[in-house]
Amino acid sequence: MQPRAGPSTLSCRRTPRSTRSKFASCIAADGDPLVAPPETSELDYEVELAIVIGKEGRRITREAAMSYVAGFTVAHDVSARDWQLKKNGGQWLLGKAFDGAAPIGPAIVTPDEVGDVHNLRLRCIVNGVALQDGSTRELVHKTEDLLVWISKMITLKVGGWAGWGRRARRGETLNSRSHVHHPAPLRCSPATSS
Question: Which CATH code is given to the segment(s) 23-190?
Fold first, then answer.
């Protein structure tokens, strides 16, 4: 007889493991140079799909979730892994929320224009080299599930955004790559479908 997952195990697999904050000072334009803070020696990259919120909402249902979406864009979750994982008592905030840690854009695509948001190509390019190349099919959570989860505790505001990445796709630290120099031109780019 095989053990079966109980309801609590099942629900844990369906909810995000962690959330993090990005402040206004984190936002940078697509293609801007990425300047490593001198306080970190473990700068890391991760391309993400970002949901742009189109109307305010709290405790959103899965069925209504897409009506809160203005559109999608590509974002870059830049992390100081030493500050995220080794320093600051295990709190992720400083490792994720330093100035310039969230390049986003360059455009917002409406849901009707994007088609199947869970079948898009995502790439992270540093110094002209594609360091990540994958698909939104690999996203850890679906759009609707993410909005349901976040809106349980946080009121989603118009113009706000939520980004999320693919399972086990974090990169090596930028500092360990011989071809990356700071400030590095960094681009995250979507394509129509994968």
Answer: 3.90.850.10
